[in-house]
Amino acid sequence: MKARFLVATAAALLAGNVQAKTLVFCSEGSPEGFTPALYTAGTTFDASSRQIFNKLVEFEIGTTKIIPGLAESWTVSQDGLEYTFNLRKGVKFHSIDGFTPSRDFNADDVLFSFNRQFKKDHPYHMVSGGAYEYFNGMSMPDLLKSLTKINNHTVRFSLNRPEAPMIANLAMDFASIHSAEYANKMAAAGTLDKFDQNPVGTGPFKMIAYQKDAFIRYKAHPEYFRGKAAIDDLVFAITPDASVRYQKMKANECQVMPYPNPADIAAMKNDSDINLMSQEGLNVGYLAYNTKVAPFDNAKVRKALNQAINKQAIIDAVFQGAGKIAKNPIPPTIWSYNEATVDDDYNPAAAKTALKAEGVNGLKMKVWAMPVQRPYNPNARRMAELIQADFGKVGVDVEIVSYEWGEYLKRSKDTDRDGAVLLGWTGDNGDPDNFLAVLLGCDGVGGSNRAQWCHKPFEDLIQKAKVVSDPAARTDLYKRAQIEFKKEAPWATIAHSVVFKPVRKEVTGFKIDPFGGHSFYGVDIK
Amino acid sequence: MFRFLLNKLAMIVPTFIGVTIAAFAFIRLLPGDPILLLAGERGVTPERRAELEQIMGFDRPLWEQYFSFLGDLMHADLGVSIVTRTPVLEEFLARFPATIELSFIAIIFAVALGLPAGIIAAVRRGSIFDHTVMGVSLTGYSMPIFWWGLLLIILFSGTLGWTPVSGRISFMFFFEPVTGFMLIDSWLSDQAGAFKSAVMHLILPSIVLGTIPLAVIARQTRSSMLEVLSEDYVRTARAKGLPPWRVVGIHALRNALITVITVIGLQVGVLLAGAILTETIFAWPGIGKWMIDSIFRRDYPAVQGGLLLIASIVMIVNLLVDLTYGLVNPSIRHER
After folding, report:
1. Does residue A157 contact residue A112 with C-beta atoms inside 8 Å?
2. CA–CA min distance A407, chain B (Å)
3. Taking chain A, what is the end-to-end CA distance rounded to the nearest angstrom?
4. How far apart are CA B127 and CA B138, in angstroms?
5. pTM metric for this prediction
6. pLDDT, greater one: A129 or A294
7. Is the complex ipTM more than 0.85?
8. Residue in A137, A213, A410 closest to B42 by CB
């Protein structure tokens, strides 16, 4: 009896000494919900897919490299129409209040997660609004022909056409895998909506509490298939104001924060408690001419105007140093980025001469300035003013126009749009196709191709790259496409932003995500 | 009294109908399309757009949408947020206790300081104290909340380390909410230090939110008191040899309070408006921040539901203020 008491006391003392490691992340806002497929905001993905769920294939944290996730391996058929995934065995779902999984992850979970979005008659299709904007935005309904369960650990995706970026698409947040068993249990209990409110995944953290606009609490998943996370508890302290987030960091009330104020960067660099990490963002900000309207249908005129823009001045004034001049339509963090491309040099005199040579005199044009702040353009109005001044120096009279954001997006798609539009793009899946085909492909004219540019040599290259599965061949095609783009200049490529991530010195293992997300697996506190 | 109450209640009905029309129309009159805003740079195909409009009910004529909104209102259904896909009432109730708690403490702070400051300033008219109160209250009234909040955070949380930076309670404490009011829940939780943490977290936001009402109350109390103190009956009371505290505290204040109560009632609306900024600075999970986010996202159901609920609260508070007049000055009850 005495011995048992001593053992119990020792155990209690030990438990008291081993303190749970808690990391607090000062997040910028509340998630829209916890089922990634239903939403589009990065804030939502930070709170859901990046902590709670896994995908069949995943981006290695901190890179755009694709690694196996819940699929151990995969094969692609010769014609590029069938993708067969071999699923990982022994993967455990989270246990939460009201649900304890009775089985490991299997093919049924994959089918459930995709069929919910794909099949309109699926019992969960209309639950929580039924809007699957990423699934639709990546053209998955047209692309997917069927999903087949070969056996409990093998799944086949059949496509209607070859699509080389398919694997990258499956690493995106909307492709997070949910528990079919949990879904069935909720359906049987008549509480379908709870499925989306109390998430169950296989990821490194399970959600244990959420108070809207206040906090989200997670606990490390003890049976995570890659091994338990180094931190025991993860807290998202929802703090909308960037200056307040910094004050909380200084007071050690949180250890990692996103989106610092540009004005605070200098102080952060000098703060001995803070490690200010930085990396180029997976984005591009541009000025798209309307290539269907004269004189912007003339590549020489567009090139001349590009030469008139002092990009360095824009980086200094608009990005306050947190940006890098863009010469290609894809950011340098994406594979196939063409280092050899030569940017249009800043040369107002040459621009003036070139415009005169093309018979362009006394040109009046509009430049559209976005009404909102985006990662690729923190102050479009200021950028437009700088461009206005630059164009003024070469004899081009610019009128700046702006509309409410929704209207701006809508009107800027018009093929007969009057003026050049400032806009940009943040990558979804790290594939060059996600930039080049979406923003500059012929299918995007009248839509996301704001330059209304359809150029056959370029189109041929990107279409070929879509169906070729050999990465080296794709790289070559995309590099040539970038040269073609630069020659034709449908845009003035302006900048890629530089992302700053302040992290307290005690934190180790944190990596900046090129997609702008925040993952805390592999992160520890000294 | 009953007739008085009935009259006031009868006035609320048309006001409420007016508010439903205003709440419904307001967000739709703003330029911007919720579907385009949801889609962002990625855009949406015309087919998908039609599909989404049908899901969200925007494909129906406006009058039909309005009457459907009214019909649902009869069943206490304010619709579903198009951003979070959760019921608007649930979203509102999840945040409302935080706003009420903060506003309540802020108004107590404003009254507790503003009322005595105004009275003393009136009694000692022209003194240094009077000039100081008037000067400080003018400064308080014109102070931008955002700047004031950040200044206090930098001084008291950053430099001195006396108060926490933001939030409602330290993350060391965790308990299931019972009432949604952190002071009560932390007290009920029995966790050592939780109540103190909740109190500490309330100090700075209450001061920031209460600053403008404090300035208004102080100035209003002073001017009402000055008016009453020059009345004949006050002079008579003094001439009768009543002690000064009795003249000021009973005879003058009671009459001066009517205007002050009106101002306090009106400040409830100001508090709810001020809460938007205060809640953003202090990461306070209330309805202010939620409303502003919903407006920016053109979340029609959330904005119209939220506006309606806030307007209803202001109406109820004003009704209570009207009833309080009756208690303070019984002659008001008999007005026809």
Report:
1. no
2. 6
3. 39
4. 17
5. 0.83
6. A294
7. no
8. A137
Q: What is the amino acid identity at position B301?
A: P
Closest CA to B279 of B96, B115, B131: B96
- Neighbour count for residue A143 (Cβ, 10 Å): 16
> What is A256-311 written as a DSSP string?
B-SS--GGGHHHHHT-TTEEEEEEE-SEEEEEE--TTSTTTTSHHHHHHHHHH--H
B153 DSSP 8-state letter? I
Question: Min CA distance, B86 vs chain A (Å)?
Answer: 7
What is the spatial distance between Cα A458 and Cα A437, in angstroms, rounded to a whole number?
10
Amino acid identity of residue A310, one-letter, is N
Interchain contact, B55 vs A247, CB within 8 Å: no
Q: Which two tokens mark B208?
A: 């920031």
Instruction: Work out the pLDDT band at B184, boundaries 50, 70, 90.
Output: very high
The tally of CA atoms less than 13 A away on the side-chain side of residue A365 is 30
CB contact under 8 A, A128 and B85: yes
Helices (H) and strands (E) in chain B, counts: 14, 0
Sequence letter at residue B244: P
For the stretch A96-113, what's the b/e string if a residue is b when 16 or more beta carbons lie within 10 angstroms of its beta carbon? eeebebeebbbbbbbbbb
- The 10s digit of each residue's pLDDT in A316-349 is 999 887 899 999 999 998 999 999 999 999 999 9
Answer for the pair A195, A179: CB distance below 8 angstroms, yes or no. Answer: no
What distance in Å separates the CA atoms of residue A54 and residue A223, rounded to the nearest whole number? 14
Tokens representing residue B7 in the block = 């009259």
Q: Which of B262, B246, B240 is nearest to B123 (CA)?
A: B246
Nearest to A425 among B41, B158, B281 (CB): B41
**pLDDT digit string, tens, across residues B124-148:** 888 999 899 889 888 888 888 888 9
Q: What single string gives the DSSP state of each residue in A37-102?
A: GG---HHHHHHTTTTT---SEEEPTTSS-EEESSEEEEEE-TTS-EEEEEEPSSPPPPPBTTB--S
CB A431 within 8 A of CB A393: no
